[in-house]
């Protein structure tokens, strides 16, 4: 991530230096978005707020007939609630004549879960300027981008009393019952690491206002975006024993693999506000 930032700054300074000695048509800028929303979870260790913060620096070159072409980078961090983890725990009875503890029932539990990750992306864009007046325009941007990071975490709120069920702790009429005398794990969220790669292509629309001859303001929203999200479980797995010791192995498999989205990305990324500098 630091190498990409340094590369972007080096390109930025080189373009600025060139602008002072030639008729360069380069411009640079960025747009950004930040939002939060409450989840209202009852579990105190569940993620209580979803959030996203991102900034997209960009460098472009003006072409003929109000077209421009450029490169774009993206640095983002997000936290997003996903569907709960559904797990079924066996309930064991008294020791029988064969020295075995028979399963006398099951306790189904639903545990809140969220994704958390920071991503670095890069891509290209093609922009069309449609003038509305002397200082206003509508800008359409067609873009393609790849973003990735291998330090994500699936956060699961613990369900105490379900990991080690004990005799006489099972109440079929109370699905929310927690055993006060059963052994439980440490009081912290369960974190399962994953790797994330996103391929994105879409169309943005922006309203632009030329505040100064060298400075423009933009309010940008996404019209349509196609996203392929690839999530990989980074846990070390041993097929012969993990189902016995890891109750989440099968339960969270729904989250990993390839996922596809087609539609507006405003609900996910929010409305973006940007500045465009054209000192050339």
In short:
The chain is mainly beta and 280 residues long. It contains 4 helices and 9 strands.
Question: Please, could you describe this protein's structure?
Answer:
This protein is mostly beta strands and 280 residues long. The protein has a domain at 22-82 and 114-165 and 189-233 and 241-277: Porin (Beta Barrel). 11% of the residues lie in helices and 56% in strands. The protein contains four helices and nine strands; from the N terminus they run H-E-E-E-E-E-E-E-H-H-E-H-E. The protein has helices spanning 2-19, 242-245, 248-251, 266-269, and strands at 26-38, 49-62, 67-92, 103-131, 136-156, 190-212, 215-233, 257-263, 272-277. The longest helix has 18 residues, at 2-19. The protein starts with a helix and ends with a strand. The relative contact order is 0.17. Residues 1-19 form the signal peptide. This is Outer membrane protein beta-barrel domain-containing protein. Keywords: Signal.
